[in-house]
Write a structure and sequence with these properties.
By secondary structure, the chain is of the alpha/beta class. It is built from eleven helices and twelve strands. It has a six-stranded parallel beta sheet with strand order 6-11-10-9-8-7. Strands 3-5-1-12 form a four-stranded antiparallel beta sheet, covered by helices on one side. A two-stranded antiparallel sheet has the order 2-4. α1 packs across α3 and α1 packs across α4. The two termini are 30 Å apart.
Length: 296
């Protein structure tokens, strides 16, 4: 994770996640955490007791989580109220109050952990994404996520990437064609000409479907282009080979770099002239940001 000096001062507010999707995810999390109720709160806290709490940042970052926090407390009790001094996509310093919650004490205590778990993870993704974007500043490269997301949380984690100033890759296997190394290996095993096989596949697609082909060697690029690739993914290429690949493609398709993309390497990759840099690290191994929720 990066320090505060590496974070851009940003206030980008992406479009919200559809509320029904948020409620479905949060309801499942609450059901997992309290399948038969919160027996500790029900035992110790009077039903008429009310409480207020604040969500406070313990380290700097980029905020993401307003919808999941609101849903966690609303679904715990419709009588809760949540206010947000900071919006999704805004940067903050340690000590910043991110949310203010009030309502039935039992509901505040029941919703606390689900709200925190999700907000910490999403803010961690947004913060790391912002650091990647900052490293690529001054180049034409877009930072994008991958499908290496937590099962069931993809729509939220993709939103967090956007909160950090990044972009989204295809959302699912149904969105676009992406011929990866294993697909190409199967074609080669059948002694099929790569360019012809790709061209035949693309001919059967609607014109609205994007067609991407992954290559792991420079000598595969021409076949990918001849097969009609809209984007050529240069997988695990060295910076020198990325430069050569961009030169060979020469604007005939979008160029994407992937593989071994880390915060320490992304600036050098961006400088090669690629259009896109996809990084699974944004979502598959990010550290949750340190946020705390305390009753007043």
């Amino acid at each position: 994770m990066t320090t505060s000096t590496a974070l851009p001062r940003q206030s980008y507010v992406p479009a919200p996640v559809p509320q029904d999707a948020v409620d479905r995810i949060v309801a499942a999390a609450l059901a997992e955490d309290a399948p038969w109720g919160d027996i500790t709160s029900e035992l110790l806290v009077p039903v008429e007791a009310r409480a207020s709490a604040v969500l406070t940042a313990r380290e700097p970052g980029i905020f993401c989580g307003t919808q999941v926090i609101e849903a966690a407390f609303r679904l715990a009790s419709a009588q809760t109220s949540v206010q947000f001094p900071v919006r999704d996509g805004e940067s903050f310093e340690a000590g910043t109050v991110l949310a203010e919650i009030s309502g039935p004490a039992r509901a505040v205590l029941t919703g606390e952990r689900v709200a925190l778990n999700l907000a910490q993870r999403l803010s961690g993704i947004a913060t790391l994404t912002a650091a990647f974007v900052a490293q690529a500043a001054g180049t034409s490269a877009r930072i994008t996520d991958t499908r290496k997301t937590t099962p069931g949380l993809r729509i939220l984690e993709r939103h967090a990437v956007r909160c950090g100033g990044g972009h989204n890759h295809r959302f699912s296997l149904s969105d676009a064609v992406m011929a990866k190394d294993n697909h190409l290996a199967l074609l080669a095993a059948g002694n099929m000409d790569l360019a012809q096989a790709l061209a035949a596949a693309k001919a059967g697609l609607p014109h609205t479907v994007h067609f991407e082909v992954e290559v792991d060697r420079l000598d595969q690029i021409e076949a990918a282009l001849a097969g009609g690739a809209d984007t050529v993914l240069l997988d695990n290429f060295s910076p020198a080979d990325l430069c050569r690949g961009v030169e060979l493609i020469g604007g005939r398709a979008l160029t994407e770099a992937s593989g071994n993309v880390r915060l320490e390497t992304v600036a050098e990759i961006a400088a090669t002239g690629v259009d896109l840099i996809s990084a699974g690290a944004l979502t598959h191994s990010v550290r949750a940001l340190d946020l705390g929720l305390d009753l007043r």
